Amino acid sequence: MFDSLSEKLQNIISKTQGKELTQDNMQEALREIRRALLEADVNLRVVKAFISAIKDKAEGEKVLEGVNPSQQLIKIVHDELVNLLGKELKPLDLSGSPNIIMMLGLQGSGKTTSSAKLAVKLKKEGRNPLLVACDVYRPAAISQLQTLGKEIDTEVFTIPESQDVQHIVKSAIEYAKEHNFNTIILDTAGRLQIDTDMMAELLLIDRIFHPNEKLLVIDAMTGQEAVNVAENFDAQLNLTGLVLTKLDGDSRGGSALSVAYCTGKPIKLTGTGEKLNALEDFYPERMATRILGMGDIVSLVERAQEVFDEKQARELEEKMAKSEFSFNDFLKMQKQMQAFGSMGNLLGMIPGLNIGKDDRDKISHEGEKQFKRIEVFIQSMTPQERENPALINTSRKKRIAKGCGMEMHEINQFMQQFEQMRMMMKGMHDMKSMFGKMGSGMPDLSKMGNLGGLGGFNGKLGKHAMNKAMKMMRRFK
Question: Helices 357-379 and 408-425: crossing angle, nearest 10°?
Answer without folding.
Answer: 100
